[in-house]
Structure formats: C-alpha cells, structure tokens
Design goal:
Layout: H1 2-7, E1 11-12, H2 26-35, E2 40-43, H3 52-61, E3 65-72, E4 74-75, E5 85-88, H4 95-106, H5 108-119, H6 127-134, H7 141-150, H8 157-165, E6 179-180, H9 181-190, E7 194-197, H10 210-219, E8 223-227, H11 235-248, E9 251-254, H12 274-283
Parallel strand pairs: 1-2, 2-3, 4-6, 7-8, 8-9
Antiparallel strand pairs: 3-5, 5-7
Helix pairs in contact: 2-3, 6-7, 7-8
C-alpha cells in the first residue's frame, strides 16, 4: 500500500470547500489541488460531509485518490482544552457521530447572526451580505471576514480574524452544542474513523503537558497534524509534540488547510508522508479511500 501512495503523492489531508468556510466548490477544491500537484486529498469541511460525493467524483475524473474526512469542532475535556479534530474514514451514517455533527451545524446561522449584530455597533455590515458570501453554505465566521474585507475594513481575511473576529474579541460568540474533545474522539472511533488534532499548537503559545497527551491517547487519539503553517508560530510547542510523536509512535500528518480565497494557504504547501496515510487507512474500519479506476487493483 505504501508504494501505491508514493505513486499518488503529494498527499494533502486538510482542505475546505464552500460547503463550510472555503470559497471553492468541492469540485473546485479538487481541481485547485490537482493544479498544485496534489494527487491524494481529503475534503475536511467543518462538521459536515455534504461535499464528499462531488469531491470524490472530481478526484476520480482526475485520477486522484479521495480520502473522506471532516474537521470537527470541540470544547475542552477534563485536563485538556478545546481543539479542532480531524477525522478520517469514518462512517457518516453512524447515528451518534452524525447526530453530534448536526448539533453543531444546526446552530450556525443563529450564532453568526448574533456576531453580526455585535459588529453592527461599530461596522457597516449586514447579515444578508454574510449569507450571500456563504453562497448557500451554513454561514460561518470566515464569511463575516469576507464581508469585512469587501467593505474595506481589513485587507485580508487573516487580518479580519487577528484584528476583529478572534475568540478574545468582544464580538465573539462561542459555538454551541460542541462535544468535549474526549467524547468526540470516542465518537469518531465508534464510527470507525481515525481522529487527529488539527494544527495543535498553532493557536496557543504553550506546550502540551504529558498528562494531557495521555488523557487524549486514552480516549483514542491517533496523532497530530504537525506540518501546518500555523504550528510554526510556536516552535517550542511544536518540538514537544514531535518528541511525543516519536516516543508514542503517533501518526503525524502535514496539510495545507486550504480555504480558497479565505486564507493564503495553498494546496500542497505541507503534505503527509505515504506511510502515515497508510497507517490511517489501516486503523480505519468505517470507510475506505476512493481510488482511481486504473489503480484499484494495485492497492
């Protein structure tokens, strides 16, 4: 299997479409990935799988391998903080996980409307413009950021998050109905999937204590997304996680976190080693990769 993925490299396991907070359609994400040389990719929209079928069809048309995935929102659990969880190759129809994902996305529009109402105290922004920016997808903060850019308040979406929409700003409203990270890890495992923490030190300046790691591993965590541009902002924390990965033989991935025009990240800017993807596939029982027709007999 590993030799197959060397033929299907580079591998990018973290990409978003306009089904959540990206700007490209699922097929558009695939075409952009292909144009940047990526040959195996995962679509990991936030708390939803709506784009899988379209992305899979485009991958197969371009002789690419498709890995079903999602990025799940969580709160903190006992001893650990809230983080985003990348889940791969899970069964999307498994009732408990499907229900948990729907709980998060179901409250999206109300939350975004409340954030816009807070912003309206200081900015000329309309909720209708945010819905137009979302273009049929559940509205999320990057869609607000896009409107702030269009209205001239900030030059880029990244500036909007750092200057206006950060979780420490007075406009911020937390997501409701997120499960704590330990429960969500268990739900992913229960659906036959493989859970890894996304950009684990990219949004904090600290170092994960060993006791926190052990709590996460006991819940079923498989590893970390370490080669991600945000992680390099915290070199000490990143090095510690590399040490943990070596000591505990964890799965380590690298990804772009592509969002189309909503972030500067480009497909394939960081990638996953074939042997790490092979380990994800070996652990998964809920779903399978979608291979190009002419390569299915080689896996």
């Amino acid at each position: 299997m590993e030799s197959f993925f060397r033929a299907q490299s580079p591998i990018d396991l973290h990409m978003h479409s306009n089904r959540s907070d990206g700007t490209d359609s699922p097929a558009g994400v695939v075409r952009e990935a292909h144009a940047h040389g990526v040959r195996t990719m995962a679509l990991t929209d936030h708390d939803m799988v709506d784009g899988w079928a379209e992305a899979e069809a485009e991958c197969l048309a371009l002789d690419m391998t498709f890995i079903p995935g999602a990025e799940l929102s969580t709160t903190g659990g006992p001893g650990v903080g809230g983080m985003h969880l990348l889940a791969y190759l899970f069964d999307p129809l498994e009732p408990e996980l499907a229900s948990a994902m729907l709980e998060v996305t179901g409250g999206s529009e109300s939350r975004i409307r409340q954030i816009v109402e807070r912003l309206q105290e200081d900015f000329d922004i309309d909720f209708g413009d945010v819905l137009a920016e979302a273009n049929g997808a559940p509205p999320q903060r990057p869609h607000i950021a896009g409107v702030l850019v269009k209205n001239g308040y900030v030059p880029t979406v990244d500036h909007a998050f750092s200057e206006i929409l950060s979780s420490s700003s007075r406009y911020y409203i937390p997501k409701t109905n997120r499960g704590n990270i330990l429960d969500v890890i268990r739900l992913v495992r229960g659906a036959g999937g493989v859970p890894l923490i996304a950009h684990p030190v990219g949004r904090s300046g600290g170092v994960m204590p060993l006791k926190n790691l052990e709590i996460l591993l006991d819940a079923g965590l498989a590893g970390f997304e370490l080669d991600h541009r945000e992680n390099f902002q915290n070199p000490e924390g990143l090095e510690r996680l590399h040490e943990y990965a070596r000591d505990y033989d964890l799965i380590v991935t690298g990804s772009s976190d592509y969002h189309g025009d909503n972030k500067e990240n480009r497909p394939g800017e960081h990638t996953t080693e074939p042997e790490m993807l092979a380990r994800i596939i070996e652990q998964a029982t809920g779903n399978e990769p979608r291979y190009p027709a002419h390569m299915r007999g080689t896996v």
